[in-house]
Structure formats: structure tokens, C-alpha cells
Amino acid sequence: MFSLSRGDHGFIWRMVHEEVSSGSSPLAELVNVNSWGHAANGTSVEEFILLGFPGTWHSQVSLVVVFALTYSLTVIGNASIIALVWMNSNLHTPMYFFLCNLSFLEIWYTTGVVPKAIGVMLGTSQTISSSLCILQLFFILSLGSTECFLLSVMAYDRYLAICYPLRYSSLMSSIFSARLALSSWLGGFLAISLLPFMTSRLTFCGPDVINHFLCDIDSCLALSCTDTGHVELATFLVSIIVVVASCVVTLVSYIYIISSILRIRSAHGRKKAFSTCSAHLSVVTIWYGSTMFLYVKPSAQNSPDRNKLVNTFNTVVTPLLNPFIYTLRNKEVKQALGRAFRKK
Q: How remote is the C-alpha of 117 from its chain's centroid?
């Protein structure tokens, strides 16, 4: 008799991943037969197996290093922005208050994905219970929705600052900005709560293998042995409401912003006005592009490998880019950062 280490388990599941992906080997047929045995016995799947990324053990270790480094930089970068705003009184404005909310959100957004993904790639934590899978789904979707609302609020803030500079302080008071931020958080979690609830009511009787490194809505729908048409329709409608509606608010705000900037006579004035919103515009373009690809579609018919790539960009890369974009493209943040280093 012999025992398998955790690394051996991870290696075996990666072999299964490659065989199942090809779909033409006896191993693939065996996995499918055993998985669908749940349905024949009338039992429900209690946990799922996350396959992560295909490849050799060395490629998995390389991905783990990249994910771990990216996660560390994301947490440090976003936490630094929060600390920087907190310590500099000249940054105590609605714009940086919203930025702190965004940084706080990004820390938790990537935390809900990366640690589990690292465990999956190392082969130490490839299983996830159905309840935790639904919880991760709720966590990711809720924070993603909150980010959509926060970005639209930040666009509205820039619209007021550029189009109504003399009335900005009265229009965007500290109380009003706090209400907008709170509404974004509450709206994000409430708007998306229906989807995890509907997904949890589905029956999963096999197969129990998720070809992903996280629990996303497409993977859950693909594993259900009951009709998922109503969940797909609800996902599409909620995506339209959350993603497209917030994107429209952002787009309209920037149409007014750009038209106001173009009316400024001096080149220096135009450059200064555009510099206050260029960082936010960069983040908006990156975020909405990937989010619309993932969720704004009438059915869950996306390539698993393409979904993994876009999800990696959305949940790992984008949270890392945000602090660097706002630091490198924002004069006030760079000045505050310079003062912080000079004090040391």
C-alpha cells in the first residue's frame, strides 16, 4: 500500500484536466461515467473540483508565483492609497474618498479569488463545497456590481467638478458623497443577490468538475442537470441593469466633461482639467471592457479557456493596475507620495 501527497493529488487532477479537455481518451470517458453516476443514483453533488489551469507542475508553480506576487502588490498598493489619503488633509475631498472606497473594494475583490486559486494550482485545495461555491459567486458578483456603481459615481463627481467648478463644493458635499458611496455598496450587494439565490436552487447531479479556478455563473449553470433558462435570463437582465446602466451614466458624464474641456480656451487649462479625470477614464475603459465580455450576453456560451483568461484579467490584473494608474496619472497623489517619502 502507498499514500499520495498533496502534490501527487494535484498532479493527478491536472492529468484528469488534460484528458477531460481532450474528451477522446478512456480516462475522459471514465470521469464522465463516474460523474454522471450521481444523476443515475438520484443524489446531489455536495462539492465541486476546481481544475484551474492546464499544464505541467512547473508551469503551475510559475503561475502561483505570478498570482502571489500580483496579489501582494495589489494589497500593498491599494492599502497605500488608503493610508496616503488618510494622512494627507489636502486629499480629504470627495474624489479621493471615492478612490479609497474603490481601493478597499479591490483588496477584498482579489482576496475572494487569488488565495483559493493558488491552492487550486498547487493541488492543496482543489475541492470546494457547493455552499462555499455559491458564497464565492455571491462575493465576486456583489463586489463587481459595487465597482460598477462606484465608477459611475466617480464619473458623476468629475462631471460636477469640471462642469460646475464654482458650485462643486456645495453640490458634492461630504454628506452627499458618503450617501453616494453607501448607495453604491448597498446597491451592488442587493442588485446581485437574486442570482446566487437562484443558482443555489438549481440541482447539481453531475459532473462535479469545474474547468476554472473559481466559481463563476457560467460554470455553475453548465453543471446543473435542471433547466437553467430562467437563471440565464435573470443574469442577462441584471447585467443590463448593473453593467450597462452604470456604463451609460459614466459615458454621459464623460460626454459632458469632454465638451466642457473643449470649450476651455487655454491649452494649459484643458490639460489641467483632463488630468483630473484621465486616470479614472483609464480604469473605466479596462473594467467595463472585460466585465461586458463576461456577463452581458444572452446565454452562458463562452469558451472556458477564454473565460479563465478574462476572469484573470478582471480579478487579478485590474485590481493591481488601479493604484498604479491613479498614482502615475494623478499629480496630487504623486505630490503626496513624494512628501511621504521625504518625511522618511
A: 14
- Residue of 194, 212, 198 whose CA lies nearest to 304: 212
Give the span between the Cα atoms of 195 and 92, in whole angstroms: 37
pTM, entire model: 0.80
DSSP 229-256: HHHHHHHHHHHIIIIIHHHHHHHHHHHH
Residue 127 corresponds to which amino acid?
Answer: T
Digitized pLDDT (tens) for each residue of the chain, 344 residues in all: 444 444 444 444 454 444 444 444 443 433 343 443 444 444 567 788 898 888 788 888 999 999 999 999 999 999 988 998 898 888 889 988 999 999 999 999 999 999 999 998 888 888 888 889 999 999 999 999 999 999 999 999 989 988 898 899 999 999 999 999 999 999 999 999 999 999 888 888 767 888 888 888 888 888 888 888 888 889 888 988 898 889 899 999 989 988 888 888 777 777 777 776 777 777 888 888 777 777 665 555 566 677 788 888 888 888 888 877 777 666 777 777 777 666 65
Nearest-angstrom CA–CA distance, 85 and 100: 8
**59 touches 121 (CB < 8 A):** no
> Could you tell me which residues come within 8 angstroms of residue 184 by beta carbon, excluding any fewer than 6 positions away?
101, 146, 149, 150, 153
Half-sphere CA count of 218, side-chain side, radius 13 A: 22
First and final C-alpha spacing in the chain: 61
242: number of CA atoms within 13 Å, CB side?
31
The span from the CA of 297 to the CA of 312, in Å, is: 19
Any bridge partners for residue 209, and if so which?
49
Residues 6+ apart with CB under 8 A from 57: 7, 10, 11, 14
116: which residues sit within 8 A by CB, 6+ positions away? 50, 125, 128, 136, 213, 214
Element (H, E) at 319: helix 318-328
Closest by CA to 230, choosing from 205, 208, 197, is 197
